[in-house]
């Protein structure tokens, strides 16, 4: 059986609760705490669920937003338990589509 876990990222909600509505509000506050991220990295941190998050960044966010890690990250089951059957393991691989690249004639 496979049990797939995921997270719900509440950073944007926590920022709004503190009156921070722009991703650019967060960058200097992180820098004050020794976390130097580019504008694009901060934007992705706020708008997408992070796949990897350093403990320094998490600690800085908790300090800035006066919250605990559980306030930012909610762990939940993404897919219910799935039992693999013999049929699922024998499915054919998808067909490969071949393409040809042709060079223009050299004059």
Q: Can you give a write-up of this model?
A:
- The protein is of the alpha+beta class and 107 residues long.
- It has one domain (2-84): Orthogonal Bundle (434 Repressor (Amino-terminal Domain)).
- Helix content is 39%, strand content 17%.
- It has 6 helices and 2 strands.
- It has helices at residues 11-17, 26-32, 39-47, 55-65, 69-72, 86-89, and strands at residues 2-9, 73-82.
- A two-stranded antiparallel sheet has the order 1-2.
- The chain is flat and about 60 Å long.
- The termini are far apart.
- The mean pLDDT is 86.
List keywords for this structure.
107 residues, 434 Repressor (Amino-terminal Domain), 2 strands, 17% strand, flat
* Count of helical regions: 6
CATH architecture: Orthogonal Bundle
**Tally of strands:** 2
Helix share bin: 25-40%
Main sheet strand line-up: 1-2
**What value does the average pLDDT take?**
86
- Total domain units: 1
Terminus-to-terminus distance: 62 Å
Q: At the first level of CATH, what is the class?
A: Mainly Alpha
Summarize the structure.
The chain is 39% helix and 17% strand. By secondary structure, it is α+β, with helices and mostly antiparallel strands. The protein is flat and about 60 Å long.
Topology readout:
Layout lengths: L1 E8 L1 H7 L8 H7 L6 H9 L7 H11 L3 H4 E10 L3 H4 L18
Antiparallel strand pairs: 1-2
């Amino acid at each position: 059986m496979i049990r797939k876990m995921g997270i719900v990222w509440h950073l944007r909600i926590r920022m709004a609760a503190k009156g921070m509505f722009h991703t650019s509000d967060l960058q200097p506050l992180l820098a004050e705490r020794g976390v130097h991220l580019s504008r694009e990295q901060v934007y992705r941190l706020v708008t997408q669920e992070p796949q990897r998050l350093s403990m320094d960044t998490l600690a800085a966010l908790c300090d800035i937003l006066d919250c605990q890690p559980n306030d930012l990250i909610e762990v939940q089951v993404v897919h219910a338990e799935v039992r693999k059957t013999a049929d699922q393991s024998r499915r054919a691989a998808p067909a490969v589509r071949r393409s040809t690249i042709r060079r223009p004639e050299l004059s």
